[in-house]
Write a structure and sequence with these properties.
Shape: globular
Strand content: 5-15%
Number of helices: 19
CATH class of the domain at 4-19 and 78-390: Alpha Beta
Largest sheet: 6 strands, mixed
Helix content: 40-55%
Length: about 500
């Protein structure tokens, strides 16, 4: 497989409108219910007096840790968030735009385990993290390097964010996410971005994102809200992501999940705007259903996909970019038919919803516990096909090709027409996987499954990886910063 297969940059624009699942009356009812939740139940901010003071000063009702809002108030606070913004990359050619008709795909996030066909399932290491950053950098179908792609458990908890951000900055030149598991780690991440991009540029432009998970239902803990405030004060993108599993962290119905997600998400967006009006934000979600007989998580289900589509509409009405709750997610334990069926169902709903950013687009297994090298390849292959779909269909005299019919006659094939010869190399999306061929050829070549063929692809990609260029002085300053910060802290393993 040639290197140029991995070096192009796939377009990240959608050329047709997102699917409008709900009408205005239904959307308004969900928005009214979100307002009811915020007025009647409220949101708790635990351990963050600064956030509570900011909301009190804005006119919200604060009683202890609980914050309540009059109907319409929270939406007013969100109004300064930009509907579209740029997320700058170290390589300007990879700078992204979030919002409007753009779609940005990212790898999985947060898995403590990895697996491949050679070594099986195991705890993720820093080498695995670096491998997935390299693979993400090389594929044209993921536009963003991601964040905690896997947890490098061989590095102390309080230091691993330094190695992860260093990997994103040095091994890739795509946009990335920083640490959020403490305000100090958020500050470290921002400082590393300043070393690379320059402090003035970072103050005026978003170059990174912070993933702020809400402790659903209806709680922000100090870790998340203080990290949010760090990113917002630095003018870096805050992605607020409620995590609701129907029946556990919220009611079982898609409508209730959508309303609660909207309520929780708007509060985080409002806090970011109170810290710094105009701070770029993304309304995120991570929602799914549960098997209510066994309590196990399920992914790619119709109910979760309906919530995905509704939330994109709600985010558009709020006027902010939307991170989909879907992606190529699955509860399957191995790369099998269930894994790809769950993933394809969730990803289709995500792509047609009109969402602007898609996390977990590649690699996810076991409900997010594991990143699979082979599934990563299968997933990015599907990402490529779906991105081709998002480009839509051109209808013109050129694509209708009347001259082809004049060159042939009834009953003759079109293989040698000038139109076919001109476009045969680019007419169709080409899979990353080696062609299996007819049954006899496939059998002679070892009868490999798609996962086994993917095993060879990821190895080939890593073998052909070349690090993007970086100024030697900047790289040295980054490494010095990481070494200095590590030296200041004793190792903490939990």
């Amino acid at each position: 497989m040639s290197k140029n297969r991995f070096s192009v940059i796939a377009p990240s624009k959608r050329h047709f409108s997102g699917f409008g699942l709900l009408d205005n009356a239904a959307l308004s009812l969900i928005e009214e219910h979100a307002d009811w939740l915020l007025e009647t139940i409220g949101i708790e901010f635990r351990g963050d007096g600064i956030a509570l003071d900011l909301f009190a000063q804005s006119g919200a009702r604060v009683e202890g840790n609980r914050v309540r809002f009059e109907p319409g108030h929270i939406r007013e606070l969100c109004a300064t968030a930009p509907p579209v913004f740029q997320l700058h990359a170290r390589n300007p050619a990879r700078t992204l735009e979030l919002g409007a008709d753009n779609i940005v795909l990212m790898p999985g996030y947060g898995s403590p385990f990895v697996t491949d066909l050679d070594k099986g399932r195991r705890y993720a290491s820093l080498e695995d993290f670096q491998n997935f950053v390299k693979l993400t950098y090389m594929t044209p179908y993921l536009h963003h390097s991601g964040g905690t792609v896997v947890e490098p458990v061989d590095v102390p908890v309080n230091k691993r964010h330094l190695d992860m951000v260093l990997a994103h900055l040095a091994l890739s030149d795509k946009p990335f996410m920083g640490g959020v598991t403490s305000p100090e780690r958020a500050r470290d991440s921002i400082q590393m971005a300043r070393i690379v991009f320059g402090a003035e540029f970072v103050d005026a432009n978003a170059v990174m994102q912070g993933n702020i998970n809400v402790n659903s239902p209806l709680v922000y803990d100090h870790t998340m809200s203080s990290a949010l405030r760090e990113y917002a004060s630095a003018n870096q993108c805050v992605c607020v992501s409620p995590a609701i599993f129907g029946g556990a962290m919220g009611p079982v119905t898609p409508a209730a999940i959508a309303a609660q997600t909207l309520a929780e998400g708007m509060v985080g967006i409002a806090l970011a705007q109170l810290v710094r009006p105009g701070c770029p934000v993304v309304l995120g979600s991570f929602h799914s259903t549960m098997n209510l007989r066994t309590g196990s998580l399920t992914f790619g289900t119709p109910e979760a996909n309906l919530a995905t589509m509704a939330l994109t509409q709600l985010g558009n009405r709020l006027g902010v970019p939307v991170r989909s709750g879907g992606g190529q997610i699955t509860a399957a334990n191995v790369v099998d038919g269930q894994a790809m069926q769950d993933s394809a169902n969730a990803m289709w709903a995500t792509m047609i919803s009109g969402a602007h950013q898609v996390w977990h687009a590649a690699g996810w297994l076991e409900g997010g516990l594991t990143m699979s090298y082979e599934k990563f390849i299968l997933d990015i292959d599907n990402c490529g096909a779906l991105l081709r779909m998002m480009r839509g269909m051109e209808v013109s005299n050129e694509t209708l090709s009347p001259e082809s019919y004049l060159e042939t006659g009834p009953g003759e094939n079109f293989l040698s027409t000038s139109h076919t010869l001109e476009y045969y190399a680019t007419a169709n999306h080409e899979s990353l996987l080696p062609d299996a061929g007819p049954f006899e050829t496939w059998l002679e070549n070892g009868g490999q499954s798609a996962a086994e063929r993917a095993n060879g692809v990821w190895k080939e990609m890593l073998a052909s990886y070349e690090m993007p260029s970086m100024d030697a002085g900047i790289k040295s300053k980054l490494e010095e910063f990481v070494a200095s910060r590590k030296a200041e802290m004793p190792d903490e393993w939990y």
